[in-house]
Amino acid sequence: QRDRQQDRQDARADRSQKAAFRIATGINNLDQAIVTWLAKPEDAAALTHTYNENAQAIGAQSMELTDKDLRARVLTHLQLVSLLVGDARQYAAQFARQSGMAEENDQLRIQVQKLEELAGIENDHANAIREAIEAHVNEQALPTYQRLPPDIRERLQRFPHPADSPTY
Predict the structure, then answer these.
(1) What is the predicted pLDDT for the residue at 49?
(2) Do 156 and 81 touch, CB atoms closer than 8 A?
(3) Cα separations in angstroms, 59 against 23, 31, 101, 108, 143
(4) What is the per-residue pLDDT for 164?
């Protein structure tokens, strides 16, 4: 009986570690898409596609994680990326409508700066998630969680949870 219970615990831990690796891969894919998008923020199609391709898988894989704190961090990261993708799509639509209007270009530049700032926050958060995943895989305590800036936390509270978010 005890061996059987230990076998189940070992199998669960193994599934959790494998899920953590797959989550890290998905986060890396999202980060690469964000870097590529930053070079041409008026075109959010590839970023949107990569988000749609990876977000649901990351969300599903998070259910396999044995560490609830890590799961919460991963889901918060998905919300953050979803927020960024939504903002990127809004910018791209506005850019298409206002392209060529000199008075609007200053407003667009300000929006790009805000998007770049949000992308920087996402990148820092992604790095923190990767560190937490590494600790989880190595069966160590998770690093202290660095909370997101208050304005971002406020926006995320109004934003749907990843499980409730439709794809774009």
Answers:
(1) 95
(2) no
(3) 8, 16, 41, 32, 21
(4) 55
